[in-house]
Each structure stands twice: as structure tokens, then as C-alpha cells.
Protein 1
Amino acid sequence: MVSRRRFIQELATATGAVVLVPAVSRCGGSTKPAAKAAAAPALQAPKLLPVPMVPTQDWDAVSFNRERGNQGAIPASYLPDINGDEGEAKHLGKHLPFVPGVSGSIVPSGYLAIMWGDPDKGHAPHPNAEPGPDNNNEGHWYNWIKVRKATTDPAAEVESSYSSWPVIGSEDSGAYAAPDGADPSDDGGRKTIYLAALPADVKPGDRVRIWAHCLTHGEYVDFLTLPA
Ligand SMILES: [Fe+2]
């Protein structure tokens, strides 16, 4: 069961907002408010590294996401894994996007195919799971992906939603696919391809920023180049 304090912390993280906790006083059954009740502390959303519009000259997605994760973009319970000896390959790298080499026929026009954990970089593939005891009954998949052209000029950012897995919700703007002949739920969900909607102002070969949220493991940011 999620504790009230944890819920508030997660709410603050999810919304980026300051969550004010109401003071509750007990006065022997009286409903009169306590005159000198101590004000409950306001829990503030953590200060996070800003998400860059374009990659820095020495962009290192692992370093950036580790630093931002330790500031609060990644749940505290996952930080020992992120910061551990195998943190890059088995945890942080597992949450970084890459463009899988799949047949264009399974990618609708106006969408980008994304998977997480590039084996070519030695990163573990990201599993996906329905809600269950292993994931606090919240499920384990990416529930939103935001795509924006990597530019400091004004640009549209399009967010795709994924409210369920392995079958997309009827109101969702994202979609799932799988490599030829596979199902998104195969191999512990590691065959899931996320189809994320592209902004209208991008074209093949452009660089885009991917900013996404794993229900279990927090937010991650990286840049990808669209297939030519
Ligand atoms: Fe995850």
C-alpha cells in the first residue's frame, strides 16, 4: 500500500508542483481547530536539471540522466541500482531510447518507432509488465513520451500517452507494435515497440528530443535521429 507521505512525494514529482499538506489536529474529540497547531511543512518538488532543447556539445545521456535522476527524476528506491556497478548497462541504459531496425511497414506515417535499452551499446532491453506485486500494482511500461525537434527555435512538442499495456487504451495517442512475427508481450515485454507521434515540423533525418516516463523507474531524456 502506498503511504500518504510517499503518495504526496510522488504527486509532487509527477506534477512538478508544490503540494501543501493540510494540518490535522486531534483535540480529544473536539472539532475546534487547534489554536497553536504547528504548520505542516510544505513538500516541494525537487529542483531538477533543466531538460535541454538541443544536446550539449559533450552530451552524455547516461551522465545527464544519472544526475537528474539523483535529483529526483528517478524514484529513490531505484537509485542504488542506477548508481551501482552495473547501473549503466542494466538500469540507466535500459531506459534510454533507440530506433529499432524494423520494417517501415509496421511504423505508421507520422510516428517514430522507439525501443529502450540498445543492445548495440551493451544495454539491457527494457521489459514491460502489467500491474502486479512486482511493480506496486502500477504496471511497468512507459506511460508518456514527448517528442520535440532538437532546436532552440520555437518548435512543437507532441506527447503520446500509453495508459495500459500490452494493449493500448482506447483514448491513448500512442500505439504499440512488435518486430515481425512477434507480440509486444513476448520475452517479458522486451519485444514492445512504442510508436510515438511526431510533431508536424520534423522531417526524416532530423534530430529529436525524447523525454519519457517509465511508470516504475521515472523520467529519462535523450536525443535520436529520425530514419532518413
Ligand atoms: Fe522501467
Note: Residues 144 and 161 are 5 Å apart (CA to CA).
Protein 2
Amino acid sequence: MDRVWRIVGIVSPNPLEILVKFKQWFACLVVLSGAVLPAWATESASHPDPAMELDRMDQRTPVPLSPHMALHQKQNMRDHLEAIQAIIAGLAKQDFPAIEAAAARMGFSKEMEGMCQRMGAGAPGFSDRAIKFHKTADEIAVYARKKDEKGVLDSLNRTLAQCVSCHATYRQQIVAAGTSSTLIERLKSSE
Ligand code: HEC
């Protein structure tokens, strides 16, 4: 016990000396926190969490998604990009069946509709845009079946315009699975 008293600077432990030392240590602590805390706060304010900083800078409407849903959405997106490339390749070779097959990868279906509704449950307007996009992609397949090159190009352009405008409007926001919007997702999926 004597060692403890010595460490805190007390020679003969009596209540008065303990009180005086306690006050000295407390004053020290106040001065230190006054000097260190503001410096630490400024430091962390100038270096905020990079993910939070991006979140604050990106002004697009957030689409709240659980990590699982966000990954799934990005996989779909990369598949859309591949489908677009396959359509262009088909156009270059005048291979209309290939164009039709590629467009079908982005086409509308009841399953696709359900998925878009779950993805967009927390972002007003997102699902409607997504569904409209899939229906526009279906038009590419219709023109490909007719071997109508101009029609394919026109509908491809209208489809791409929807990729562009959705990306300009929305961004992913990763939220913990089970938060309000992911609960809405689950409620909707169980309907
Ligand atoms: C209804 C909205 C919507 C439409 C339509 C849409 N996207 Fe996306 N896409 C998104 C969102 C949201 C993201 C996530 C972007 C972010 O968080 O910055 C995304 C991300 C992407 C990514 C990045 C994937 C990754 O791995 O990071 C690609 C590529 C992409 N989209 C391609 C396309 C293409 C090609 C089309 C059209 C053929 C398309 N998207 C149509 C909403 C959409």
C-alpha cells in the first residue's frame, strides 16, 4: 500500500494530505484534458471516417441496403453491363439472335419485379425506375426479333439513358441487416 501512496506523491497518508494530493491530481487532469481533448477533436474532425466522409459528400439519394442486398445489386449491375457489351457485339456482327438473348438478361419478369421492389423498399421512386428500365430493355429484344437494326439502336439508347439517369440520382447506402428499411424489404418479400 505504501508503494501506491508514493506513486501518487503522498509521504505520510493522512486524510488532509490525501485530499490535497487528490485536488492537485484533479487539477492536472483538467488542464491536460483541456489541452489534449480539443486537439484530438480537431484532429479527428479533419480526418473523419473516410466512408462517412464519402457518404456526406455524395449528394445522390441513398438506397438503403443490407450488405447482402448491396452485393447482390452490384452483381446484377455488372451483369447489365455485360449484356450491353453483348448487344453491341451482336450489332457489330449483325447477330440478331445474340442481341435478343443479351437483351433478355435485362428483361422484365415477375421475379425481377419482386427483387426491384425489395431493393428499392427504402428509396422512394427507385423500384418504379428499375421496373421501367427492365421493360425498356425488353424493347431491344422485340426489335432484334424483327432484325430491325435502327429499332435496336434506338431502344438501346433509351435503355442506356435510364442507366445514366438512375446512377445520377441514386447511390447505395449500406445499413445493418434488420434496420427499418431492411425490415420493410423482408415484409415486402414475404407478402
Ligand atoms: C433503377 C436504378 C438503376 C438502373 C436503371 C441501373 N443501375 Fe447500375 N447501379 C445502380 C445503383 C444504385 C448502383 C450503386 C451505385 C453507387 O452506390 O454508387 C449501381 C451500380 C452500377 C455499377 C457498379 C457495379 C459495381 O460492381 O460496383 C455498374 C457497372 C452499373 N450499375 C451498370 C449499370 C448498367 C450498364 C445499367 C443499364 C443497362 C444500369 N446499371 C442500370 C442503380 C441502377
Note: Residues 10 and 18 are 7 Å apart (CA to CA).
